[in-house]
Amino acid sequence: MTPRTTRLSLDRLQSSDLDAMWRIHSDPRTNVHNPAGPLPDRKSAERRLDEWMKHWREHGFGYWSVRHDGRIIGFAGLRTSAWNGRSSLNLYYRFDPEAWGHGYAAEAATAAVDIWRSTLAKRPLIAYTKSANVGSQKTALAAGLERRPDLDQFTTDPEGADIVFALGWPRK
Ligand SMILES: CC(C)(COP(=O)(O)OP(=O)(O)OC[C@H]1O[C@@H](n2cnc3c(N)ncnc32)[C@H](O)[C@@H]1OP(=O)(O)O)[C@@H](O)C(=O)NCCC(=O)NCCS
After folding, report:
1. Residue range 107-126, pLDDT digits in tens
2. Rounded to an integer, what distance in angstroms lies between the CA atom of residue 8 and that of residue 104?
3. In this structure, is residue 152 part of a structural domain?
C-alpha cells in the first residue's frame, strides 16, 4: 500500500518524516481554514506523527508522506474515522504551499480513492471541510468524491458548518 503515481511517491510514514510534518503543519498558510490552527510546537508534531504511525501498525494503511523529486511536499491518505456515528474512512490532504496548484493533491487523493475502491470500500469514504476552503473542495471532487449536503454537520466555530464529500455512503 505504498503506491507511486505519475509524479509522486506515496510512502508509509516514518519517524524521519518529523521535520516535514512540522514544516507543513506549523505553517499558517496550510491552516487558514483549520479551526484548531497550526501545530504550536515540534512536540505536538511528534505526537501527531506517532499517532499516524500507530494507525499504520494497527490497520495496515494510513496517511502517506508525499514526495516529489525526493522531497516531501505534503501528507495525504486514509484513516479510520466516524461520521454521524458511523464507522468510515477519512480522506486527508495537506500540502506545502510551494507545491500548490500543480495537481499534486488531486493526484495523491485519487491514489487514496483507488485504494479505497479496491480494498476498503466496506466503509464509506468521507472528506469534510469548511465552505470557504474552495481548494479542499475541488481536490475532493477531482479525486471522485461526491458532494453530500445531507451529511453536513453544523459547528459553532466561526468558519461554520463542515461540508461533506463522500463515496459509498448510501443515499436515503
Ligand atoms: C487543499 C490543498 C491540498 C490543494 O492542494 P493543490 O495541490 O493546490 O491542489 P491541486 O493542484 O491538486 O488542485 C485540485 C483542484 O483544486 C483547485 N484548487 C486548488 N487550490 C485552490 C484554491 N485555493 N482555490 C480554488 N481552487 C483551488 C485546482 O485548480 C484544481 O482544480 P481543477 O481540478 O479544476 O484543475 C492545499 O490547498 C492545501 O494543502 N490546503 C491546506 C490544507 C487543507 O485545507 N486541507 C484540507 C483539509 S479539510
Report:
1. 999 999 999 999 999 999 99
2. 8
3. yes
Pocket around ligand 1: residues whose beta carbon is below 6 Å from it? 30, 33, 93-95, 100-106, 129, 133-136, 138-139, 142
Average pLDDT of the residues of the chain: 96
Q: What is the pLDDT of residues 133-167, one digit of tens each?
A: 999 999 999 999 999 999 999 888 877 889 999 99
Number of domains the chain contains: 1
Rounded distance from Cα 139 to ligand 1 centre (Å): 5
Nearest CA to ligand 1 atom 30: 138
Q: Which atom of ligand 1 is nearest to the CA of 138?
A: 16
Domain that holds residue 19: 9-167
- 68 domain-assigned: yes
In this structure, is residue 19 part of a structural domain?
yes
Nearest CA to ligand 1 atom 1: 136
Nearest to 91 by CA among 60, 136, 46: 136
Q: What is the CATH number of the domain that holds 73?
A: 3.40.630.30
Residue 158 lies in a domain: yes
CA atoms lying within 13 Å on the CB side of residue 169:
25
